[in-house]
Amino acid sequence: MQTVTLPGSKSIAARALILKRAHGLKIPLSNLPNCDDTNELATALKIYDRVPDNSEIINLGNGGTSLRFFLALAASTPGFKGVIDCGDQLRRRPIAPLIEALRSAGAHITCLNNDMRPPLLVTGTKLSSQGTNLDVSSSSQFASALILASPLWSKPYSLPSDTDATSRPYLDMSEKMLHIFSNFSDQTATYTIESDWSAAAFFYEYVRLNPGKTLRLPHLPPPDLSLQGDSTAARLFAMLDVDTTFNADGSATIRARHGSPRPDSSPLHIDMKDTPDLVPPLAVCACMCGIRFLMRGVKSLRFKESDRIATLCSELRKAGYILTATEDTLCWHGDICAPSASGIFDSHNDHRIAMALAAAGVPPQRIKDPGCVSKSFPDFYNTISSIE
Q1: Residue 243 clears pLDDT 90, i.e. is over it
Q2: Which of 10, 34, 257, 318 could form a disulfide with 241 if both were Cys (CB 3.0 to 4.6 A apart)?
Q3: N- to C-terminal Cα distance for the chain?
Q4: Paired strand residues for 195
Q5: How far apart are CA 59 and CA 63, in angstroms?
Q6: Segments in the chain forming alpha helices (H)
């Protein structure tokens, strides 16, 4: 059995970094992931800490979570004034609903190109949740951004419980962490960030495609104790014949069942609305194992680092699998074709696509833009290649 070290959860890290500022806390954060998204947010917050001397442009790179959370925090901070920008890839992703919601709460945000996209001139002020309107149909991050910044508001923001939001577990994470940080009484206490369940999913994929391998994943809490909705990876990959044992030391042990792979006569039907980031490793793994599937609730994937529905269809076709898709479904009926003669795959500059391909055995030399994994897991290729 080999031990694989996962990065800390960047979803938890982003919330912890924002909540520290919103509550004026000085507590140290342990197990912060060393990845592009977290590092860019931390750099932006160093500039934020220099309010009002923040005349430089604050660039959040291509981290959608980082940009959305930081924008809400800055707009909610009286005395802040600065220009917030991002990378070209991120400008193509939705942010207008968040800008509109913040403006309805009283924010002063000017779109410098008049197109409801960064760069944005932000002048911070005291906001109010009264009359705030928010469209969460394309991303739960908009609501999380308001929740995390609203300790600075005259009245904290809360999303109505009956709201039909995409990726609801991420909203639950925001609300739970808001409660935790609102009740920190010991300024010397350390907040420890869980290992990343989203990253763990690629190692579930790996062990399923490499029967006989057993991996130990430290600091990975079970679903009933984890803040992360993607902890459902343990349940979802159990449907693909990967077993998980949670150990007393806080680690998880994963292995494929004896006799895998086993094509099933009936396709798997899975609702992915709450955990769309798990679709790439699940889809690649299922195809490679000959397990047909129908995944619903995937429409939010069209607005990620790439259009992940289109990307999975194109890249898995290169591997010999013909997928079909609608606006909100991704399906493999078992149809196959001749694999691409070139053997070259395209990550579409999307870290989760690159990792799903690599976990299936595609070397980084055959993946276009393999370095995009630095967004969440810079050491991914070294980690997976070191498994014996």
Answers
A1: yes
A2: 257
A3: 9
A4: 8
A5: 10
A6: 10-22, 36-48, 64-75, 88-91, 96-104, 141-149, 168-182, 197-209, 233-238, 279-288, 308-318, 351-359, 380-385
| Other residues' Cβ atoms within 10 Å of the Cβ of residue 368 | 12
Crossing angle between the packed helical segments 64-75 and 10-22, to the nearest 10 degrees: 10
8 Å CB contact between 119 and 60: no
Q: Which amino acid is at 214?
A: T
**Alpha carbon separation from 54 to 44, 148, 264, 283 (Å, rounded):** 10, 22, 58, 44
CA–CA distance, 279 with 356 (Å, rounded to integer): 9
What are the tokens at 163? 């709201």
| Alpha-carbon span 194 to 179, nearest angstrom | 17
- How far is Cα of residue 97 from the mean position of the Cα atoms in its chain? 19
Mean pLDDT confidence for 24-46 = 95
Amino acid identity, position 324: T
pTM above 0.90, yes or no: yes
Helix (H) or strand (E) holding 245: strand 242-246
SS3 readout for 87-129: CHHHHCCCCHHHHHHHHHCCCEEEECCCCCCCCEEEECCCCCC
Report the distance separating Cα 232 and Cα 249, nearest Å.
20
Contact 357, 315 (CB under 8 A): yes
98 has a pLDDT exceeding 70: yes
Three-state DSSP state, 220: coil
Residue pair 233/262 in contact (Cβ under 8 Å)? The answer is: no
CA–CA separation, 316 and 313 (whole Å)? 6
- Residue given tokens 């996209």 in the structure block: 117
Mean pLDDT of 7-26: 96
Q: Please list the residues that pair with 64 across neighbouring strands.
A: none
Of 387, 51, 27, whose CA–CA distance to 214 is shortest? 387
Residue 166 burial (CB count, 10 A): 22
